[in-house]
């Protein structure tokens, strides 16, 4: 019997906001999520919030590190000690983003056309202690809306090891 797939750990979710200060206030003051700062690739520090064993990294619109200038979720980063190896193991096409990522660690990415439009990066974990608040204990799941659910299931569950 084959071993059950292990779900990939989430390093962080990159959130883009038109009003970083207000969003940070909501995440920190209203949801009581523990905050910290992390180095962004441009050298400036950005606000981040611990949620369970992962983080929400908060970027202003138009930040150079982002894939898209639009507000919302820019990308998800899956935790791995070998970003290039993890990317190559998927068999999906990469994009030329082999660079320093959040926290200054090496990071690589998949072509979003290969992942049903979802920007996926591979990055070392941020090595954060698990944290929660009275209102939020963890990120339970990430829902991926796709025009082709069968293709999304094949990519995320079959090739990347996510479980549903």
How does this model look, in words?
- With 164 residues, the protein is α+β, with helices and mostly antiparallel strands.
- Helix content is 18%, strand content 31%.
- It has helices at residues 20-30, 83-89, 149-159, and strands at 10-17, 35-39, 45-51, 54-60, 72-79, 94-100, 106-110, 120-123.
- It has an eight-stranded mixed sheet.
- The chain is globular and about 40 Å long.
- It starts with 9 loop residues before the first strand and ends in a 5-residue tail after the last helix.
- Mean pLDDT is 82; it is low at 1-5.
Task: Give the gist of this structure.
Helices cover 18% and strands 31% of the residues. The chain is an alpha+beta fold and 164 residues long. 30% of the residues are buried.
Radius of gyration: 16 Å
The largest sheet is: 8 strands, mixed
Percentage of helical residues?
Answer: 10-25%
Number of helical segments with 4 or more residues: 3
Low-pLDDT residue spans: 1-5
Strand order of the largest sheet: 2-3-4-1-5-8-7-6
What is the count of β-strands? 8
* Order of SSEs: EHEEEEHEEEH
Shape category: globular
Please indicate the percent range of residues in DSSP E strands (runs of 2 or more): 25-35%
Structural class: alpha+beta
Overall pLDDT, averaged?
Answer: 82
- Span between termini: 20 Å
């Amino acid at each position: 019997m084959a071993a059950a797939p292990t779900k990939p750990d989430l390093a962080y979710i990159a959130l883009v906001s038109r009003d970083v200060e207000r969003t940070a206030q909501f995440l920190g003051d209203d949801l009581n999520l523990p905050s910290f700062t992390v180095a962004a690739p441009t050298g400036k520090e950005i606000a981040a919030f611990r949620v369970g064993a992962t983080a929400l990294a908060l970027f202003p619109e138009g930040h150079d590190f982002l894939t898209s200038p639009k507000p919302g979720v820019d990308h998800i980063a899956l935790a791995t000690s070998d970003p290039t190896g993890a990317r190559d193991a998927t068999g999906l096409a990469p994009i030329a983003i082999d660079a320093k990522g959040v926290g200054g660690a090496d990071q690589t990415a998949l072509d979003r056309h290969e992942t049903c439009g979802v920007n996926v990066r591979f990055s070392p974990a941020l090595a954060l202690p698990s944290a929660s608040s009275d209102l939020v204990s963890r990120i339970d799941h990430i829902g991926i809306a796709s025009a082709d659910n069968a293709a999304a299931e094949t990519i995320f569950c079959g090739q990347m090891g996510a479980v549903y």
